[in-house]
Amino acid sequence: MENDLVTRRLEFALDYTRLLDAENYRLVDMNMVEPFTIEDKHHHPSAIILERNEQLFSIRSDWTRSLLNYSENYHLDQRFFGYFGPVVRDYTTVYQAGVELYRPANDEILESIDMHLSFITDRYAQSFQSIVVNDDALLDLYLSKYGLDGDIRHLVHEKNLSELRKRLGVEHPLYALLSAKVSDQIDLVTEEFAEHDIMRFIARLRQTLEKYGMKFMLDLSFRSPQSYYNGFYFQAFLDHDHPLLSGGEYNSSAFGIAVNLSDGGLL
What we know:
267 residues, alpha+beta, eight-stranded mixed β-sheet, three-stranded antiparallel β-sheet, 42% helix, 25% strand, glycosyltransferase activity, ATP phosphoribosyltransferase regulatory subunit, transferase, HisRS-like_core, aa-tRNA-synth_II/BPL/LPL
């Protein structure tokens, strides 16, 4: 069984990196040990830190931060990067694959998401069951439109419906949205903000993904476990408890997608 896992992982790495090469992504393979800053600790509290010659280093715990530092330090003209390799979190090694897009247009983001879904469905004959999306700015739109206090945000993220009901009342549009079935949220948000750029992008994504026949859900309480994502975010699931694909916007002008090879159900 262990041999089979190793060979399947290596086969995936070869197929995936060949795909990225054909799509003009720059493939990057970096040292596992890299310079470390306090800002990195904020984003990756589980990073393993070491010191040498009064300089802090860490073992790579996330490819997104590593590639962002790499791009900024070397001022590269290339905007699309791809990777495959290990990261270490809480003393456990896991393998990641994915891409980072810098200064992408919406069309390029949609094409990259579609490329990943198509690769999995075509190469591995797997069907995605669902995709969950959100954009942190949608909640800001509700808070602004209805003059709500900022602490409502925490209640939404905690899915504290009982307290939201006390604060807002059962007739309030935000409470009605969050107490509805997740599958119905996209229609309710569209009624409020159909003409906003965020919902136009989500509508385009939904249309792009119709061919995969997966359930498409918008959930305003849905958040990334990584703190650096600050805009649109998604997770796509096979028939499995954990997402196979995760990705979103960060750093105001970047977008990343990661393939979960540990427990996403592919290998």
